[in-house]
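User: We ran a pulldown and think these components assemble together. Before we commit to crystallization trials, I'd like a predicted model of the whole complex to look at. Sequences follow.
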Amino acid sequence: MTMRYELLAHRILERAATQFPKKQIITRVGEGTHRYSYADMFTRTARLGNGLRELGVGPGDRVGTFAWNTYRHLEAYFAPPTIGAVVHTINIRLAADDIAYIINHAGDKVLLIDPDLTPLIEAIADRLTTVQHYVILGEPGDATMTLPGAVCYETLLAGASPEYRPAEVDEYTTMGLCYTSATTGLPKGVAYSHRAVYLHSLTSAMTDMFSLSERDRVMAVVPMFHANCWGLPYTATLVGADQIFPGVRPDPQVICELVEREGVTLSAGVPTIWIGVLDYLERSGVEHNLSTLRQVVSGGSALPVAVLQAYRDRLGVEMTHAYGMTEATPLISVNRRRSWLDGLSAEEQLELCAKQGVVAPGIEMRLVDENGAEAAWDGEQRGELWFRGPWLAGEYVDDERSAETFVDGWYHSGDIASIDSDGYIHIADRVKDMVKSGGEWISSVDLESAIMAHPDVLEAAVIAVPHPQWQERPLACVVTRSEASAPLTKETILDFITPRFARWWLPDEVVFMEEIPKTSVGKFDKKALRERFEHHG
Ligand code: ADP
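Assistant: Here's a predicted model for the assembly, 537 residues in total across the polymer chains.
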């Protein structure tokens, strides 16, 4: 027998502090930059743990964060787990009602809040039933201390002991909590164990996953409140990589400047971020040296093939497509370029790289058709993806909706996909976004990816609109690039995509818009679009 050894999240931090004490953590703060080392961060995290203890936080208690991507948020990723408590990252872009629901449902005892976000919490403070302390993530002078009994973060740390006293807990103890965004109904809570986060970090660092090493300089643009920032703060710490945090409201210019100045090697975000960066580079004409970028990870929704191609051909940057969800800590698959792509044509390589890739070691997958039968892995048959594995949730936190999604030990993703004989996943759609036309399914994702391949199209989202005869028909919402020579028309779009689809797949309507509405995590907001075009046609 090997020794029993608990896989605890704070072992990740201990490793960085002892093996990589001088490696850097860099944060954009206002016009300036904050820099410190893992050694500094470790001491401050120990202080935060003790400061939280002084505020009455004990094992199992929840500490909410309401914050941007910064070094203080990184400290908050580690300090509660270190003392046996739970870090709960709250999505700052949700509606006030959802934020209040989440905080109360989680039972957060302490909230750590970025100063500029304080008004959002003030507006709901009288409805928060469990919060005992508001801690403002700022300096004594600059914090907005208007919340009842507000404590200044730096004052808390200065007064707390730097002694590192980690809690020895069972590896299945909950250390993290994140709610899915409320696309339908109330948000659902997902709890993460120490073990899940530890194994997720080890696996996502692998060469055929994010391929992360101590040499990397990692900048997560994906918010730290979106699905654990895809695990990057933990994984980057585990390998001792430098980390760059883009701070308050990073825009494409900020992202490019940080990549250039700090020599970022890996960055990660949803496709709309990368579309925005590309658009900024083309519109502004500003030259940025992005040559250090070895990898741009795109995830959260399907990566249009045109974006992949533009990064490769125009910027010389490799994009890696990642797929996952809040329920999976969040990584399911990463599409690293496989050896067997080497002999293929550039076009074939692009098609394969735009798929969602092969599941991570440890994840088991099934493809189940409408009748509950296994669908073949032939690249054609479609079914719903089911998963299980060491970092998959087994339920939603205190939520009776769990029974619909977690069945007999399998997580039912609600994602419709095909899988090819090499195990590559290709997501066709979320069940709720598919267009059901005359009893057949049309993939909104395939249509929008094809439309976004048009050089004058910036963004495209396809939704189902009710139809008296066919039940539903596709409608395309399109944003024209500002530098397009002539306005786009419905005919141009349809002519462009006609060769790729059966006639009955083509959208009945093409609507041109200034901007596609986005969800709280930056995805195309199809729910908002469906509501807007409900009575269309
Ligand atoms: P939300 O439900 O708020 O969007 P999540 O990020 O947890 O929050 O959503 C996970 C879902 O996002 C997946 O189930 C899938 O439908 C979609 N998704 C995530 N990554 C990809 C991807 N690479 N390609 C296509 N869809 C994706």
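The longest strand covers residues 457-467. That may be worth checking against your pulldown data before setting up trials.

User: Thanks, that helps.
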